[in-house]
Amino acid sequence: MYESYYGFKERPFQLSPDPRFFFATKHHQRALSYLQYGLEQKEGFIVITGPIGTGKTTIARNMLSQISDSDIVAAQLVTTKLSPDELLELVIAEFKISYEGESKADMLKAIESFLISLHEQGKRALLLVDEAQNLPAETVEELRMLSNFQLDNQPLIQSFLLGQEELKAIIQAPNMEQFRQRIIASAHLKPLSVEEVKNYINHRIHQAGHEDEELFSEKAFELIHEKTLGVPRKINIFVDRILLYGFLEELESIDINAINNVAEEMGAELTGSLNSNIEDVTSDENSQRVVNSTENVENIKDVLREIEDILETSIKQKVKMARYVDKLLKQKNKQFAESNINTDKKVED
Known about the structure:
Blueprint: H1 3-6, H2 26-41, E1 45-49, H3 56-66, E2 72-77, H4 84-94, H5 104-120, E3 124-129, H6 137-146, E4 150-151, E5 154-155, E6 157-163, H7 166-171, H8 177-180, E7 183-188, H9 194-207, H10 218-228, H11 232-248, H12 256-267, H13 284-287, H14 293-348
Parallel strand pairs: 1-6, 1-7, 2-3, 3-6
Antiparallel strand pairs: 4-5
Helix pairs in contact: 2-3, 4-5, 4-6, 9-10, 10-12, 11-12
Organism: Thalassotalea algicola
InterPro entries: AAA+_ATPase, AAA_22, ExeA_AAA_ATPase_DNA-bind, P-loop_NTPase, XrtA-assoc_ATPase-like
Protein name: AAA family ATPase
């Protein structure tokens, strides 16, 4: 919607991971280097952890897009609340392995035959497991057992695990010692600093085709960092809305007033605060607090007022949009009329 207004070829802050928009901070570059190192080693596990929205999946997609080695056959698992047997079924599905039988032994035999077949072709298998913090401990152990498949003293499959911080606790459990010994490298992603937020935003808008360095003021970057805590996914959501606001208000550049207005609008939505702390945990005392009926009534009134504010804001935005569309139509009609006049003159001449 705002793309043509700001000279973008496409939306620069889409949530879907896109390797073309990948921006490597020092933490992201280190994680990517570990993944690449793991590929070169052709064995063991690489573990990348980090808070929600810090770019773990984007790193994996970026690495996959850079794999020019035709000898690597890669598959990615994104559904990970799996039992050991379900994990094997998903591995078979993602690698498109055909097999007969119903038992776990049949699945393992089919996977091993597939891996040996790859090895005989001079290829090897790479398994990326996203959201790995959801894997039960016994399923993580099943992954380790898959890594035991070898031929000519060479591993036939290698796994990369990407997950939130809970994954570290799973791996550090006493019964995970054998798995830990297979990890050849690990990295932890962190939110972006103020300077990194600035570079991240400028990188994405440049990738989308915008060349103006003055679209955001210096204070704007600081405020965006404050509101999002430097989490890339939150930055994408927030800045996308800011650009929409700028388009509706016909702003040439984004200043702190625009950012505060958008933050206020988004704060009124029933989707949680933008700048809620990643590490915040509600205490047991607060979570067990009993609210009396009077407080419930007041809470309901507050929610209704928030809904009213949201509807009012939505109506205002639609009115602005209608005005903008009307403005465009008038410009088009004017251009069309002028074009007809010029055509008539040429005919008369």
